[in-house]
Design brief:
Number of strands: 5
Helix content: 25-40%
CATH topology: HIT family, subunit A
Number of helices: 3
Bound molecules: guanosine-5'-monophosphate, zinc ion
């Protein structure tokens, strides 16, 4: 897609700090890192999100993330890492070219992985599970 910032990175129309690439995937540093070393894994081909990307391409992205994440952790002397994919504006997705975030984490980095949790009302948990189960295609 011509106006996609990650397609521009693929074509070197936008510079990037690449840490890994092969004929299908690129991993490069996020320009606004949550922690230094925050890395993004993308397929060279443009797909919007997890629902659009073919299963085998998604599987390949996970494979690259599994290869790159320990290097990010080692190089950043991190204690752990988060892996995440945002899907849709409501989730925080700003770039509509599917990407895996690899975010190195440090003890006491004062980041929360998730906001505080809520509780289900009586009976609501079972009803919610049923709604989802019935919606699976
Ligand atoms: P999203 O919010 O879509 O899950 O994540 C998009 C990520 O892409 C953001 O973390 C943002 O900092 C990063 N990003 C946006 N534009 C550029 C860019 O031009 N270069 C790089 N390296 N990262 C970018
Ligand atoms: Zn794209």
């Amino acid at each position: 897609m011509s106006d996609c910032v990650f397609c521009k990175i693929v074509k070197w129309e936008t510079p990037s700090q690449r840490v890994y690439e092969d004929d299908q995937y690129i991993a490069f540093l996020d320009i606004n890192p949550i922690n230094p070393g925050h890395t993004l894994v993308i397929p060279r081909d443009h797909y919007e999100n997890v629902l659009d990307v073919p299963e085998e391409v998604l599987a390949g992205m996970i494979k690259i993330a599994k290869k790159v994440a320990p290097a990010v952790v080692g190089a950043m002397k991190a204690d752990g890492f988060n892996i995440g994919i945002n899907n849709g504006r409501a989730s925080g997705q700003l770039v509509d070219h599917v990407h895996i975030h690899i975010i190195p984490r440090h003890e006491n980095d004062n980041l929360k992985s998730w906001p505080s949790r809520s509780r289900y009302a009586d009976g609501e948990m079972g009803a919610t599970a049923k709604k989802i189960k019935d919606a699976i295609k």
